[in-house]
Amino acid sequence: MSKISTSNKQNLKPRRKLLILKIALATTLGSATIVSGGLVYLFLNLDSYSKQIKQIIKDKSAYQLEFSSLNTGFDSHGLPYLNLKDISLKSPLQEQPFIQVKQLSLVLSYRSLFQFQPIFKSILISGSQLKFEFDKQDNILLNNQILTNFKTPSTSNTNWENILLAQRNITLNDLDISLIDSKHHMEPFAINKIKLQLIHGQGNEHNLTIKANPGNGKIAMSLNFAGSKLFDYHDWSYGQLQLYSIGHKGYQVKLNANVTDGSVRNINTTFDSNQQQVSKLTGSRTDAISDFSGEIKLERIAPHNYQLHASDLMINTPYGYLFKHASIDGAFTLDSGGRLEIKNIGLEGINSLIKLSKFSDKLKMRGDLKTIHLDWHGTIYHPHGLSFVTDFEQIGLDSEESNIPSFNNLSGRITAGESSGTVALKLQNTTVSYPKQLWQPLNIKNLIAVVNWDHESQNHLRITLPMLSYQSDGINFNANAAYIPVESSLKAQMKFARLDVNQIYKLLPKSVDKSDVDYIKRSFSAGSFYDSTISINGDPAKLPFESGGGTLILDSKFNHVNYQFQPKWNGLTNIRGTVKAHNQIIETNIDSADLDQIRVGKTSINLASILAARFVLSIKGSLAGNTEDFLNYLTSSPYESQVEPIKHQISLSGQSQINFKSTLPLDSPEKLKLAGQYILQGNQASFTAESRINIEDINGALNFTEKGVLKSQLTAQGLNSNLQLNIINGNELELNIENLDYSYLAETFYPKLNQVLSGRAATSAKFNLKNQNLVLSSNLQGVTVDAPAPIGKTESAITPLQISTNLNSPQISIILDYNDDVFAQAELDKDYNLEHLNLGIGTNDYTTSDDGIKAPIVVKAQLDNLHSEQWAEFISKFSASDENNKIESIPSNVSESEDITLSESATTLTKSESTSLLNNDPEESEEEKLFAESRLFPIQVEINSNAFWIKNYNLDQGSANFLIFPSQIFARISTPDISGDVNYLLDENRLYLNLQRLLFSTENFKPEQQNPLEKQAESEINNTESASISELTTKTIPHLPITYVNVEELYLQNHYAGNLTGTIYQQNDSLFLENMKLSNKSATTLLNLTSHCLTCSESDAYVALNIHSDIDNFGLFLVKLNQGGVYRNGYGTLDLGLSWRGGLTDFNPESLTGRANLDIQKGELLQLNPGLFGALMGVINLSAINITNLNHFNFNTLFGKGFAVRNLDTNLYLDHNDLKIENLDLHGEVADVSTFGNYYLDSSTIDTYLTVTPRLSGTIATTAGIVTLNPFIGGFVYLAEKLIGDPINKALAISYHVQGNVESPTMTQTKISNQLIKNFKSSFDFLKPLQ
Amino acid sequence: MTKKLLLIVWLIIPLLGFAEDTETLERKANSIQNSASYDSLLWYRSSAEAKAIYLQIFNNAYDQILDNVAESGLKTHAWAVVFALDGTLLDNSKAKATQVSLRSNASEDVHQASESANYYSALPGASEISCDLRDAGARVIIITNRDGNVNNKNLNMINWTQENLKQQDICYDSIIFANHASDSNKNPRFSAVINGDYENVITTKTFPPLPIMGYFGSDIQDFPNFKQNTAHDYSADSDLFDDFGYRYFMLPNPTQGTWLNNRFK
What we know:
The complex is a heterodimer. Chain A is an alpha+beta fold. Among the domains of chain A are: 719-809, no CATH class; 833-1059, no CATH class; 1081-1327, no CATH class. Chain A contains 22 helices and 72 strands. In chain A, the strands form two sheets. Chain A has a 69-stranded mixed sheet that branches. Mean pLDDT of chain A is 76; it is low at 1-7, 881-923, 1009-1035, 1168-1200 and 1256-1289. By secondary structure, chain B is an alpha/beta fold. Chain B has two domains: 1-34; 47-261, Rossmann fold, CATH 3.40.50.1000. Chain B contains nine helices and eight strands. Chain B has a six-stranded mixed sheet, sandwiched between helices. Chains A and B meet through strand 56, strand 58 and helix 19 of A and helix 8 and helix 9 of B.
């Protein structure tokens, strides 16, 4: 009321001004009356002054006034009138006229004269268009011209409202009005053909009638009021408003309102669109409202106290009802508050309202607001203490607006006071879709939430969420929160009763990267969180409080979680543990889990910041289980290709544990960072293909990262050695065996190797996983190799061994380097069967001299010394184990023996040698073995040596080439001392020795003088070598092949001995040299030898030798026996028989028994001198006799320069060390010499009797005869000789007893009795045949 | 003017050619110098020391042998001296030198060069010692490992050898050849001389048994019962070397010999 008083005071000033104006007007009218005569004339001819009028208006207002006609006159009541047609008022700044009016008729009332203001009896304005607009700058525009501004209204002293109400009748006809509210985005509103009439009644009564015909309807409004203000009903003493809106289907709006004494008494209105298009009334923007109806009553029940009742309100829209039988009831006072209750508001209809806004049709609501209770205090114009309560049900919102989520089935209540309120929400089977913020729609089974807000003081709002209960598939939690915006303080707690892991991704907002969400969705397939709490305390805008300002704490347990961390791997299952988060840090601790069959131990997974652009997990944990399970697990992992072959080859058992650390970017798991240890505890390993290798007690840790294995170390026991596996890096492995037991290694894999290999040595094997290169190396210090040089070594010697191969290639190539003395290149197929072998001993050049043959196996040796017996012994150690099988019965003659099938024996040696080296699979069939063997033939062997040795016999420098086939061996040897071919037929066990040259000289035996170092080395290598070759042969006598010997050029002691042919064969266990024939210019010699019972003991075995020579030139024969110069020419025979106990190599002069008979005809005994005797077949040795002592015999006189011989006949018998000279008779032209007696070899003494009988025709007879005997040429021949003259003339015979040391015997002239001869003969009992 | 230009061109062209030749020669020389045999060949073929040592050995040998013969009381033609041929009387390094020098030009046939009609030169003093000893009553017998069986359209080894010796004024009584290319053990041939047994020996002449009072060789295997593969390991003071300087006379041959089979120590 006080404001109204203030308003009246403010109106006093214009009233005073109006009074002055009235006076002025009266004065003017008076003056006008006075001058009316002139003025009447002027008025009646006013159109003649049109130009001047337009000019005056233009000058005064700057507007250009135009009209088509101007009529003036006086009506029937004498009142002046003025008619203007086609009026336009145009601003010079606008092209379009400001106002256009078709007709303006004014009839002036004489009241103007009395009331001193312009009062017209009638004002008619017809045919105009008024376009009102309220723009964004708060300007009010009329026909695009600014009239005024709301914020800065122009002040005017003119009371236009008073002037307007003073007019007697104002009629606006055919008026088109449009309203545009650009500021509030209101739909433009236009009504055409409006007819408005304002009629001044009695006193201050007025009647305002408006009629319009919008669309097909009609609107009629009648306002009767009594008051001085048109737009302020408070000024009215009474007022009545009636409004009718009638469409073609009936009324639409009927409103009746009454005002009494400046206040509204009642308003009654009914409205019904009658299913007419509202837009036709209100414009196209109201298309959304299709129908409406209802009744509203406002009744003043007491001064300033009203009651409102609206019933059966219906507003229908194309989207549904906004009001459906809604009602509004309430009461209020104008100055002390009120209350309203609205029922049944349908939200579908709101969609139409929404369409009116800028949200257009992107939002679509549904559901009902059941009741809205509204209470307020204060005036109705300025309410306060507003209280709002509404219940709503099944509200839904379909939103295509990205910033507004869609939801359905929202029920609840909002209770809002002016400073506090509560929202109680209930969602049931609700789907919340918020694509802008959520990757997945939320499917909420039940959600109950209560939100309170409390505006405690100005700008101090407190929002609390005392209860939130959420339940959806797999998610069940309760929460409460409190939020104070001004403090940006949020305190919230969530308790998850259950949160299924596979539902988490549905909760994740889009602030989490899509790849992370996909990873979580893909990786977590089962399990749930339980007993979970989330506490938030701080500014929610700073969540998750990375840099302080609050705390975010999450604490939860989880179990039965499955986590698939790699698509191709078996994931973690049954994970149990806890997860804790503090602000942006998330820590997950796994108590247990299963990785296939592997048990996962305590493991922690940390996420350093959930704010990071990418989620990176830090994981630390452990796994434990059976090693086999680990391998099984890896076989179903991306490492299958690497692990599968190993798994097929190696069987691991035992316990293993993995401790690891990892960082895992969820968006790109391939960038996984991993570090850890794979700990093996007491594991065992066995190899599928090789059951003999068992590695036990494997302990240690394999350090690894995501890139592979790092430097690590494992220890184990295997091969009877301590094994240490060092992993250098992901690609390089190193197996260090500090004390690899080579004896055990040999015993395990190739027992025969154990005969030559023993000891322990540090050994390492390096393996490169990337290129699959395997290098095995050792210096073999501590290992003894009992083999010929350069293979053999002493225990202390350092002989580097390196074996390298590549396991990746389909064809495995093995390269061996042993002390730079032995080189090998072997190629194996995928089954590790040997396909090619190049073996170099003493050389790495595998190119043999014979390139024409492409042998699968090529052996080339370049040796300084090649000791054949050492190599034979060495090779024999790899022969078949059952040596007894090698001695087989052979038929008694050679021809029969040729038919023998020698399935074993030496064939076995070679076969087994190659077989055992190439393939030792016991399961392999015989055929497979043969096939395996045959494809590796021929074996080409080339040996070049600076010295070929047979024991200590030096065959000189040269070469030997072998071409070995399964059934035969070809060999060619070439040295200065031996050259020729050898062909050995294994199946038949035949050996063909076809030598071009064989040179034998005792000078080729290695002299005693020897390099001490070599001696030492040899003795070290051959610590058992002191055993003679005889021991070798007696120990392991192979079944000797039938050997056919043909030596074209045989040299003995540098003498050409001729051509040698013959056969050597073994029968049962006896050796025979049969039909050995030696032919040269001097003689043809036949030799037979039997070595009986090779395997017997020396007491049971014996050797018998028989030689028969047909001598063509005895002198030359002696030359070839290195006794040249003794005799010239002569011919005859030599028969020699010798035998001794034991084998061939048991030859010993002391054990010999034998006989010799030499019968030579013709010839000439050359001069007698020391050299003569010494050269006589090496048997008679008088070189030591001081010939000067014999001068008195005048031998030179007797024999002169030569002694022509008619016959030389001698018979000798050897009984161990006693050579018995039965007779030695020399019949010459000048004398006969005969002798008999003994030569004791052991004491080098003689006891002989010699008789010289000069022939009568000869010169003076002198006798001399001394015999000494020495053994000659072990094993072959024993000869004795004595110069004896065949007595022609007994009378001249002179006898001597020659005795004593053979070097200086004494000769005593004596007589030889028959008894003496008889006694001598009796000593020949030993000639009994050998057993 | 034209004449001057022609004169300049005429002078320059040979110089350019010379430049190329010089470069080629240098390259060839470098190649030769890098050869493993270069030093030994250089010494053997080009050094004064080589000449001196041959003369020294031959002179001393001559005196020593005659002393031995006198001491033994052997009569004229009742004793023999044995010479090896290549590397002892004749310089056979030519083939190897040619081989080395031509290594930079492999198009030439080395073997053809070695079998060409060009004879080997006598080594310093070889002619003199052979003739002096023969004059002193020795049977000069040459025992060579040349294959006496080589007799084809390109080469008759016996004739070629004899002609070479004759050309180089080497005095000798017989030449004993090897029976085969690999018949390098001379001991049977020494034995043949000593025993007069020439069965299965290729010789230009036979003699009754003759004691050999002197051996000349450039390889240890030119001496009786020596084998390189053992002898190289003998101690220097071994009795086995006692005859050297008295009956055995070793001449240098740093380019060829059985010693090439030994391992480097």
